[in-house]
Request: fold
Amino acid sequence: MLTSLVRVKPSTAIVSRVVSAYSTSAAAMVKATWNGVTVAESDKTEVVEGNHYFPPDSIRKEYYTSTETTSVCGWKGTAHYYSLQVDGETNKDAAWYYPEPKAGANNIKGYVAFWKGVKVV
Reply:
């Protein structure tokens, strides 16, 4: 959790409030690259627990293959995975998404995040 300070009135003390650090929106253009190729790019990612989640329409689908892999997060739900295929190389289960997230994670429904050497900048 992050704590930010908010001034209520010039003559009163500064009052602190808690701001959730679990989810924020990114306003700058963000790219995901692997094996020298951009596999996703957007200025509308959602940042959850330090991971950029890319909107479904921002991924370059020609590089993605669905896998049978799933994992479960207690508050987001069941994640499904994609492997990336670029220039004859495969990065198995390098991307994940939540097709039916729990209520607290609806902002990332269908959005795609990365790991396993995919650079997100």
Summary: Residues 1-22 have pLDDT under 50 and may be disordered. Residues 77 and 101 are 5 Å apart (CA to CA). The longest strand covers residues 64-73. The radius of gyration is 17 Å.
